[in-house]
Amino acid sequence: MKKENFLLLAKKYEEGTCTPEEKAAVETFFDKMQEQSSDLENNISDEKGDVILNKILLELQVKPKKYSFRKALKVAAVLVTGLTIAFTAAKFIFKPKEITQITAKGEKKEIYLEDGSVIVLNSNSSVTYPEEFQTTRNIQLTGQAYFKVFRDVKRPFIVQTHDVKVRVLGTSFDINSYNHHDTKVSVITGKVEVTSPTGKKVQITKNQQADLIKNSDLQISTENSDDKIAWISNTIILKNTKLSETVKIIENWYNVDIVIEDQELNDLTISGKFKDEKLENVLESIAYLKQLKINYTTKNQITIRKKTP
Hints:
3-stranded mixed sheet
């Protein structure tokens, strides 16, 4: 906490304008300050205290005769012990405000952090982060986001999802952690460290991905990382993607609900690239490739079933 904020808090207390929490913190500060001052005074003899004080004053090039040990000790206890307690309490009170950004289905959002880093949040996702970073830059992510991190060697940038933790200093990467499939971390530039729930750590660089496979652990693969952030430029890239997973992507992308009527269709694999395509065109292409039937119950309620002869 900054000195100015502490002085402001003290002034508010004096004027009687503190909140109950602020008032309790200030009073705790003064209670502890008095206790510590008394302990220091009682545990040191006059003779030993005078020796300590004289050594300090000698270092400061101040004449000892101007000071009393007891008085100096009380002042020191107030300044050193009291301020430590006060700043600890004040730090709790003035904890940086947390900000949560959320995107709905069919929405994307670009977020600029106070350190210069940028987050592009994909649809149906959320991030939570402090308004001002302290010794670390901690982010909570649900869903998918692309991160372009401003390099700061003194403050690591850490992203926590529901299952993995990603730690970087300065780089760009994508995390796909939608709960409906395995988490994937893809590096665009630089290097990141990924930690699994079991504590296993791996480091990956450009064009490498770390996949947290269900009922397994982190697995590293190599693939063009640019494909992993194609969604930023409104492009869907499917590479042998199961129909069940494809449906989830389309639901988030176009804000619709899709039901696969025949469960055996879930494992059908789809490949294709769709840039700024209308929903109808995407579904018609998939239906043509896999001999499927698309039915619209409403504009946003869709059913996929086998195509009957």
